[in-house]
Description:
395 residues, elongated, eight-stranded mixed sheet, alpha/beta
Amino acid sequence: MPILNSAEEAKGRIAEWRHHIHENPGILYDVEHTAAFVAEKLRAFGCDDVVEGIGKTGLVGLIHGRSGPGGRTIGMRADMDALPIHEESGKPWASKTDGKMHACGHDGHTAMLLGAAEHLAATRNFDGTIAVIFQPAEEGGAGGKAMVDDGMMERFGIAEVYGMHNFPGIPVGQFAICSGAIMAATDEFKITITGRGGHAAMPHETVDPITCGAAMVQSLQTIVARNADPMANLVVSVTQFHAGDAYNVIPATATIVGTIRTLDKELRDLGEQRMRDIAAAIAQAHGASVEIDFRSGYPVTYNHADQTGFAIDVASAVVGPENVDTNMTAVMGGEDFSYMLEERPGAFIAVGNGDTAGLHHPAYDFSDEVIPYGVSYWVALAEKALPASQDAKAA
């Protein structure tokens, strides 16, 4: 099936839903306004069940096919939360709350899945059940994990789960995907160096944590340059260095903060261990002590082979195989859909957002031109994953 005529016709109405969500952003789990808006729409569409409060403020809508309850259940997920960014898009539907904006397109993801839910609830051209999943707190709050930990997969009998994210730089009307790792594990570290402070005119009487920390920052880069396979994917970035507050005082402590991004567990373990070894050795060499706080973040977003092939078939049916990149380069950003893919087989696909500002940029805005493609993908996925029997079609 190509782009649905109904999706093209409904584009303006679905865009209005997106604009409403965009104007009223919520951060992390504080998405009550969006969740209530979604729940109201799902009930109006005639979804068979709408269950709120999963993973704190997440919700799931169930749509049974023509044969009624029973059979397989396929999950389709959208995220609802915004970011703590001051919006500079200049759009008429810009955020009404200063310091909060939909800078990652979750408003578009939610609106497209709502559009698909409306179509599927009206046509029910499938057997089994579709679970439309609306998730909070993707942006650092692990809302996907919260929904999984709340028993979502078991409660609704979800057999497979699929996700979608817009990507600026990919033309509108195109999709991209790859099998295996598609987005990185995202770990964070905080290194606290304790030396001995003193007067800047008498450095020989101090143990300078700034000199020690500078050596650490330089040496941490050797994890990528000298410890990892050059063909492997590893990022080590120091993003903060805090020390002192006076021009004539050598402080007693310094703090280094950063992130490690990897695409496989072995490399993830290597990055952590080498970071610990380097920090400890350099601190000892400078006569300082060190404390390391390492926080494991989102795991690798890993697309399962069979489900990736299926997603490719679905996207190709919608936009043509020439508009589906099946060998997308993995992205070193993180995505908590990874927790759902650890629990059930599935696939995460990128949909083009065109030549727009980048994700997490204050001038970013989701392109409404993407809406028919996203809605058509979700509908095609449902109908191909759960094809209606001839008896059900006749009925």
